[in-house]
């Protein structure tokens, strides 16, 4: 298992964080029409937008989980792969307080290296995180809503070395699972869906 602490650098040819949390949503965002015409901005092509954890805590069990995050100020993000999808789905069950989700899902706890929270041993990628902010969001009129923004700093990253090829993280090989529309729909990523684009500035010369 390859491990590094982001504060000390990743030590690889290319930062794996953006490849792990993905595919990242990409959109064109024209913010305003200026005097000299439309200024176009690209969003999330180089930043891991989805590393911002945005939770809707409304059910009793989820509210308890949010309170635990804010109290303990530590958590671990474990990559869900196609192989782990069914097990991770089991962890969404509403369980009595104190019942172990690891046991229900047949997952194994492993000790983290920086935080006290255990990680999922079967997951090929784990982010150890410390809470930075736990913010209740508001509507445009200022009223509080039942949605919380949970922001954490990644302080330790574990990567299965089989997913590193010449130091580059192989997203498709990990087979991450993505949530789709509807209550039951998901997608997995395969190498056959990959294509490459060279940015204009890199083509100069």
From TrEMBL:
Membrane-spanning segments: none
InterPro entries found in the cross-reference section: Flavin_Rdtase-like_dom, Split_barrel_FMN-bd
Flavin reductase like domain residues: 72-171
Single GO term (MF): FMN binding
Entries under Gene3D superfamilies matching the protein: Electron Transport, Fmn-binding Protein, Chain A (2.30.110.10)
Name of the protein in question: Flavin reductase like domain
């Amino acid at each position: 298992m390859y491990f590094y602490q982001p504060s000390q650098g990743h030590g690889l040819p290319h930062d794996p964080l953006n490849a792990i949390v993905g595919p990242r949503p990409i959109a064109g965002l024209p913010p305003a029409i200026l005097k000299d015409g439309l200024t176009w901005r690209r969003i999330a092509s180089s930043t891991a937008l989805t590393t911002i954890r945005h939770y809707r805590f409304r059910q009793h069990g989820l509210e308890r989980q949010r309170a635990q995050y804010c109290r303990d100020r530590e958590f671990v993000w474990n990559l869900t792969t196609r192989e782990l999808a069914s097990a991770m789905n089991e962890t969404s069950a509403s369980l009595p307080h104190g019942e172990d989700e690891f046991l229900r899902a047949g997952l194994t706890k492993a000790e983290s290296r920086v935080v006290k929270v255990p990680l999922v041993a079967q997951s090929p990628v784990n982010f150890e995180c410390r809470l930075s902010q736990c913010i209740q969001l508001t509507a445009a009129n200022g009223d509080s809503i039942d949605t919380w923004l949970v922001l954490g700093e990644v302080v330790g990253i574990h990567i299965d070395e089989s997913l590193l090829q010449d130091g580059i993280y192989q997203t498709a090989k990990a087979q991450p699972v993505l949530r789709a529309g509807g209550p039951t729909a998901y997608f997995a990523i395969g190498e056959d869906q990959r294509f490459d684009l060279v940015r204009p500035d890199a083509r100069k010369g």
